[in-house]
Write a structure and sequence with these properties.
Length: about 100
Amino acid sequence: MLRQIYVVAMFSACTAIIGCVTIVHSGPRAIAVASTPVGAKVSIYDRSNTLVQMNTTPFVAQLPTKYGYFKGQEYRLVFELPGHSTAEAHLQSSVSG
């Protein structure tokens, strides 16, 4: 009986730890950014409207997903190309798990 309780307790603890690891997964994500036609200047702003990256399409942006404790980061991408209207795209990350 004591062994069964021990096994159940260990299983519960492992499940809780795995769940926490899934929720707090961190690290930047690779986001492919492209436009048609290519060559657009892209400015990427975070949720506090700070410019975090500027590049020319096509490129891969490495963007952190976390914003504080258990909050996902949000990004605004501004596409500019002479002779074309300025366009915006919004990215939102969410907590996994």
